[in-house]
Design a protein that fits this description.
This protein has a four-stranded antiparallel beta sheet, sandwiched between helices. It has one domain: Hut operon regulatory protein HutP (Hut operon positive regulatory protein HutP), CATH 3.40.1510. It is built from four helices and four strands. The model has no long low-confidence stretch (mean pLDDT 93).
């Protein structure tokens, strides 16, 4: 079965919205059986100040789990998609603290990064999601 970009994007969303580490691991295993590699990483803090750290964590998680190989081409794809996803939610989170998760999924040449987070302001929380896709070579 050939997977396309929407399948991989859906997978990254499913990983990002998993509510526990156990659920996250189960989701990643189910996706692996379908031919989709996945990774997740928790994020938190002041969003704008944390952007470099969030991007770095996404790259490291992707490498450790085998979603990508260590290569500047793959690193750049993850970094670009993570940055784009962050920018989609940045306006709502500017100067505020956030907490959430990044879900990363890849199948073949499709790579997707989803950021799902809560933006805290006193007892009022906003929930936001950013999603980005990149095309990468299957083999380098």
């Amino acid at each position: 079965m050939k997977l396309d970009s929407i399948d991989v994007a859906r997978a990254s969303v499913e990983i990002a919205i998993s509510s526990s580490r156990t659920m996250e691991e189960e989701q990643i295993q189910k996706l692996k059986e379908k031919g989709i590699k996945g990774a997740a990483v928790d994020i938190g803090g002041n969003l704008i100040q944390s952007i470099p750290k969030i991007i770095e964590r996404a790259i490291i998680a992707s490498r450790k789990t085998g979603v990508i190989k260590e290569s500047h081409v793959y690193d750049g794809a993850v970094a670009g998609a993570a940055r784009e996803a962050i920018m989609q939610v940045a306006m709502k989170a500017n100067g505020l603290n956030v907490g959430g998760k990044i879900g990363i999924a890849r199948s073949g040449e499709h790579l997707s990064v989803c950021i799902f987070m809560s933006i805290g302001l006193l007892h009022l929380n906003e929930v936001v999601m950013g999603l980005a896709h990149r095309s990468v070579p299957e083999h380098i």
